[in-house]
Design a protein that fits this description.
By secondary structure, the protein is an alpha+beta fold. Helices cover 35% and strands 22% of the residues. A five-stranded mixed beta sheet has the order 5-4-1-6-7, with helices on both faces. Strand 6, helix 3 and strand 7 form a beta-alpha-beta unit.
Length: 252
Amino acid sequence: MKILHLDIETSPNICYTWGLFNQNIGINQIVESGYTMCWAAKWHGQKGVEFASIHEDGEEAMLSRMHELLCEADAVCHYNGEKFDMPTLSKEFVKFGLAPPDPYHQIDLLKVARKRFKFASNKLDYVAQFLGLGKKVKHVGMDLWRDCMDGCPKAWKTMKRYNIQDVKLLEDLYKHLLPWIKNHPNHALFMDTDRPVCPNCGSAHVNKVGIETTQTMQYQRYRCMDCRTPIRGRTTIVDKEKKAHILTQSKL
């Protein structure tokens, strides 16, 4: 399975406003809509991070290259990408007349962090530091975005380091959270093998570790010895006679 780790950086919307707090901005107050300034992407398990920006590549070339990568990917890993990165890119694609990319699965690590854990903050920088994975590149804040929009080479150098570091953190976090990700795209569907493999990482190093019992059935439990994902067998280990008896009892 080809997994693409992805992060984009966008410009802010530029608007006319009479106040600073609790404003309702009308569409006739919008001077310029926000746009994708740059992106960084990395294939899982491979060296090197690819980066493209309006500053270095131009808007259309930058977006066309991202479109190509998405068409190659079986799955895309991001942080809040389902609500932000991917819809933003789709808006840019349709603007330039690009067709929807070929279908891909999405792995949103923000959703995993919110659903499976109780971190004090679910921001990528906090979660990464809490787990000892590193931290984001420090910068001056909004002024960095403004300077990049003005074409400042020094600001763009910082933005590039910032964007690339985010993708490196994303891949490290993905590997750390992998056994906790439910409904991960199944690696077995992308592999030509008859051996049982871990659905989360594709490893064949899977051991039996016990029995899982539901209300009416029992299943063999396994654990991946590489990524440590707990796995439940697909078929029940209850024989037909006992299964019929259990189902009959459950209806009484």
